[in-house]
From TrEMBL:
PROSITE patterns: 25A_SYNTH_3, DZF. It comes from Bombyx mori. One of its GO terms (cellular component) is catalytic step 2 spliceosome. It is found in: Nucleus. InterPro entries: DZF_dom (IPR006561), DZF_dom_C (IPR049402), DZF_dom_N (IPR049401), ILF2 (IPR052134), NT_sf (IPR043519). It comes from the Eukaryota. Residues 1-19 have a biased composition (Gly residues). GO terms for biological process: positive regulation of DNA-templated transcription. This is Interleukin enhancer binding factor isoform 1. Residues 25-381 form the DZF domain.
Amino acid sequence: MVRGIGRGGRGIPGRGGMGRPPFNRPRVLMLRPPFDLLLAEPAFPRCKPAPDDSVLTQALLKRHTELCPSPTDQAAVLSLVTKLQTVLDNIVVAPGEFAACQLEEVRQVGSYKKGTMMAGKNVADIVVIMKTLPTKEAVEGLSNKVNEEVNKLMKAEGSGAVVSACHERGFTVTGTSAAVRVLITTLHQNLRKIEPDVHLDYKVISSHLAAIRHSRWFEENAHHSSSKVLIRLLRDMCSRHSGLVPLTPWMIDLLAHHCIMNNPQRQALPINVAFRRALSLMAGGLFLPGCAGLPDPCEAAHSRAHTALDLAAQDLAAATAQTLLRVVARGGHLYVLGLQPFEGGKDISLEITVWDGVVVSPLAPAYNDSPEPMDTDDKDSV
């Protein structure tokens, strides 16, 4: 008998011996952050002072001024939102003879609530939480009630009438110069009772609950004015370049807050530095598979915001950001920001351009949706 077998010897694996390791050991997914020059600056000190970036700063501020809504538009939206809020609060407190549904709470969400509303988009969002289940009949009844009550207030002021129209998310109240989307959801404990044929879509009402969490987080953490400036600039840039269109407003909010505030000093960065940082992080793979990305503070632990994008959209966003970053580096920021239109109104991220003798061409997609054919040893006989 050989001593040691079964007690730390060489025979039985897994008990201190020298056998083969078990094959059922779970693999740990290591998420790696993209290279961030701002955070890595202590390891890569500058050899010369930073170049003068005043031209880019002026361009960014000029574009932001164009993107801000006018005082007239803001007043129009505020007036309609106030009337809607008053009517809905009255239904919550004293519904009277209204029996189509029971309301629990009314919350303002979206860009109007966050202070990032864009020029030309006079639309605000309000989430209505129902105590009862959100049936399509209940939404239609609430829409008619709100339309009737708001028109009474408008008539008392001598203003124009509003029109209410239902859709898959709730209903929209539209006035002469502004509109308010009323988004319907229900209490969290009612979600498991949702039936697809009777009630609103489960994903839709869940997203409305998430919108409340997003607005609350933004109000507590991302209220800095520089963050709001960068959000407007990034939203405008994403709307004009097709590769960045799939990015959601929530992803842009998190990206802007990260680029402005996530630094060793925990102080707001200048807008030119934050803008370059946002493009650099996206180009470096912030929204690619296997990257740590941006943790979603309003969801469960280890949740990443960019996982809402499919693989093709993640690849296209990174490629587009790389192209735009090279254009900005060669002095083409006016075209990227939209201050100067590209020839023929084309998307500059999709065209081959030349800047001071440097050719910038869009990158080919790295993700291929079609699976590669498997190489087998079985060949068809000739």
